[in-house]
Amino acid sequence: MDDEKFLRSFEECTLPFAQWHHRAHIKVAYLYLRQYSLATAIERVRAGIKALNAAHQVPEAPYRGYHETMTQAWVRLVHVTLCEYGPGETADEFFEQHPQLSQKKVLRLFYSRERFMSPQAKVEFLEPDLAPLPKSVRQSR
Fold it and tell me: Per the confidence metrics, is the pTM higher than 0.90?
């Protein structure tokens, strides 16, 4: 599926739940960051994930459903990667060019388990407690 169809299926909540995995999250973040500022991309990713979860009847529970800190941390990591290395021809190419983005457990370098799994981290963005998330002096747009 090309980037346009993929993003449309995400926004229209027609993306099959079986296809909503880590790579898809990174692709959505990348595609929004190619179009919008970091703040707007975060808002759009948040709204889209919540809508897709609702469409697939994913329950909100302490260990299920939308997680604000996880979402923002990943969008920020995609943002810094895009700023530092530039875009790919497609979202899939960008993902393949940056294998660090495929490592779902990379957030463990920044967050302790206690902080990341806290109820507060699920509903609001918490800054890391082990190491700061990287920042770029370059702009992605």
Answer: yes
Residues 8-57 have pLDDT tens digits of 999 999 999 999 999 999 999 999 999 999 999 999 999 999 999 999 99
Q: How far apart are CA 83 and CA 119, in angstroms?
A: 31
CA dist 52 to 14, 38, 74, Å?
8, 21, 18
Q: Are 85 and 97 in contact (CB under 8 A)?
A: yes
Q: Count Cβ atoms within 10 A of the Cβ of residue 11 and give its class: 0-12 exposed, 13-18 middle, 19 or more buried.
A: middle
Residue 137 has which token pair? 């002096």
Structure-token pair, residue 3: 């980037």
| CA R_g for the chain | 15
